[in-house]
Design a protein that fits this description.
Elements: H1 2-5, E1 28-31, E2 36-41, E3 46-51, E4 56-61, E5 67-73, E6 78-83, E7 88-93, E8 99-104, E9 112-115, E10 120-126, E11 135-141, E12 146-153, E13 158-163, E14 170-174
Antiparallel strand pairs: 1-2, 2-3, 3-4, 5-6, 6-7, 7-8, 9-10, 10-11, 11-12, 13-14
Amino acid sequence: MAAEDKAPLALSSSIPLPELHDGDFDHFVVDLEGNRLFATAEENSKVLVFDLKTNKLVHSIDDLKAPHSMLYLADAKKLYVVDGDLGEVKIYNSDSYKPTGSIKLKEGADASSYDSKSHYLYVVNGGKDAKLPNSYISVIDTNTDKTIAEITVDSNDVEGIAIEKVGSRMFVNVRG
């Protein structure tokens, strides 16, 4: 009975974000060593950077249109941000937040998954958001920041992908 009396979660604090209008956060990436949280505010065209020790907003990356998924590589000091409306992956120096490059994809770029063994970033793009009959999974080598392959998916609606940690399979959420 004691467990029923206790709420499973309790609000410990909140962070005011008055400059944001409607919308949600699409994806989050954490930098544990740097005590940072990166959050994509898709409808606000920004990536927000929070200090996890102070719970304060410390930076906004705002040269984006519709940021979705992200990849943070601590060793390379890189933050990869998938931008659906621009149809590209933007690359930032994770210390200065300055852009260091970009990789062009089709419009509709959204979900991504990283394989730490191969250093490949897989990014879903194309499909209905790009007004294309197929979706694509672009394979980006994060050592060279170049697209090395493209997998065609016979569906115009792919929502997510995941790479198996032990093994060689990729799981694709095909909704179309």
